[in-house]
Design a protein that fits this description.
single chain, alpha/beta, TIM Barrel, four-stranded parallel β-sheet, 13 helices, about 30% helix, about 20% strand
């Protein structure tokens, strides 16, 4: 409960859900709900005696919804826990996260979901939306109880860092997901084609002597699943695409079947050349691919072939990263730098600002069927105030996340979150 109404004036407000991109204000009521937003909110339309915050042209965005986050709980609390995840997310303007089920134990039963939800309520300052595995123990063999788990509040089903390899099992999953109106989130990677691979299969992998992962490994799984969807069209989301070949296929299939797609911010901002001399912090899944692939992904967003950008926040302790490339863990911490790195595409003229905000707020919320990522009247006051021009340099020692395995150490960025609000309460303010 908020003590009194809060007024934010003279802001650039972008809310794709309500087609708002204008100078105006925001009113948060005593319950932490949004009372009004947009150009109608100005100094002339609020009580004379009320105090207000003049944002002097800073931007207000809906709270970011990050669709792919590895939270650490249960089992990997030494890498990240809900408390540290919350603090890191808030520093990046993120108010809602979808957590992956690759925990220890994996999230595949009602009892573990209960535990996760209790931990989320007790330790987290942000909205935690857990996913459960598609298959028992994420082994790709036996389906989970979709109906039971959905009734417990699970927003989607995914094996997270794994793909379901069996076409037979995947066909059953799609049919069951259709019956229960469940969202299937697939990590597209054929196990045989990607076996022992660590980076993109190409000139760089040959030069470094590191086994490569072909872009066909991704395309084959997407092609198989989209073919299955032509028979039974459940809610289906490709977690992360990384190649031009995949996008060509998606473009071909988009009018034949309904599905959505995501992309990691890493694949939008970096390419295989950034790996340099065995930079293990850039060992990612999917791997960084060619510059041509990266440009294709940007075009994919502009052409609505890609619907969502995710941070793919996968914290790893330094000991597991500072190893040989073969031994190093896969993944990068990215929840704090997510928005700033996305804004890079605006500043260099690649993607319009409104489109960037759309694919990190409104679109993921719509896919998940949750009332987040908007500034609609009556919705929770989840939003962030951003100076889109503020320069800063990524330094691992300044990151809030427990794990400091950022993929962009030393990168100069433009755009910084100044404040983040959840249910009308300011839970982060830049120092």
């Amino acid at each position: 409960m908020i003590n009194k109404k809060q007024y934010f004036l003279n802001a650039n407000i972008i809310d794709p859900c309500n087609s708002i991109n204008e100078v105006g204000g925001l009113i948060i009521d005593e319950q932490g709900k949004i009372e009004a937003s947009g150009k109608r909110v100005n100094k002339n339309n609020i009580p004379t005696k009320e105090k207000f915050i003049d944002l002097n042209g800073k931007h207000i965005f809906p709270g970011i919804v990050d669709m792919r986050v590895f939270g650490g709980e249960p089992g990997f609390e030494y890498k990240e826990n809900y408390r540290s995840l919350s603090e890191a997310a808030l520093a990046g303007g993120i108010t809602s996260v979808v957590t992956m089920p690759n925990t220890k134990p994996v999230i595949d039963s009602v009892s573990i979901v209960d535990f996760i939800q209790r931990r989320g309520r007790d330790k987290s300052k942000i909205n935690i939306f857990p996913t459960a595995t598609l298959t028992k123990n994420a082994e790709g063999m036996n389906m989970c109880e979709f109906g039971l788990l959905k009734n417990k509040g699970i927003v989607g089903f995914t094996d997270g860092i794994k793909s379901v390899q069996s076409p037979r099992v995947m066909s059953r999953i799609i049919k069951s997901a259709y019956d229960f109106d469940c969202l299937v989130i697939q990590h597209a990677e054929d196990q045989e084609l990607s076996k022992d691979g660590m980076i993109n299969d190409g000139i760089i992998s040959t030069k470094l002597g590191i086994p490569g992962i072909s872009d066909l490994a991704e395309k084959i799984i997407i092609e198989r699943d989209l073919s299955l969807l032509e028979e039974t069209n459940c809610r289906y989301h490709i977690s992360q695409v990384s190649s031009e070949k995949s996008l060509d296929l998606i473009n071909y299939k988009k009018d034949r079947v309904n599905f959505t797609t995501g992309v990691s911010i890493n694949n939008l901002a970096l390419n295989e050349n950034d790996i340099g001399e065995f930079r293990t912090f850039l060992k990612l899944s999917p791997p960084l691919r060619t510059e041509n692939d990266r440009i294709s992904l940007i075009n994919g967003i502009n052409k609505n072939l890609i619907n969502v950008i995710v941070s793919d926040h996968k914290p790893e302790d330094e000991e597991s990263k500072r190893l040989t490339f073969t031994q190093a863990a896969t993944g990068a911490s990215g929840i704090e730098t997510f928005l700033s790195l996305a804004l890079e595409q605006f500043h260099n003229g690649s993607i319009k600002l409104e489109k960037i905000i759309e694919v990190i707020t409104h679109n993921p919320a719509k896919i998940l069927k949750i009332n987040k990522g908007n500034l609609s009247v009556g919705s929770d006051g989840d939003f962030c105030i951003v100076d889109i021009n503020k320069p800063w340099v990524v330094k691992k020692e300044n990151l809030v996340s427990k794990s400091k395995n950022t993929s962009i150490e030393g990168r100069k960025l433009q755009g910084k979150v100044l404040s983040t609000f959840v249910k009308g309460k300011e839970l982060f303010k830049i120092k």
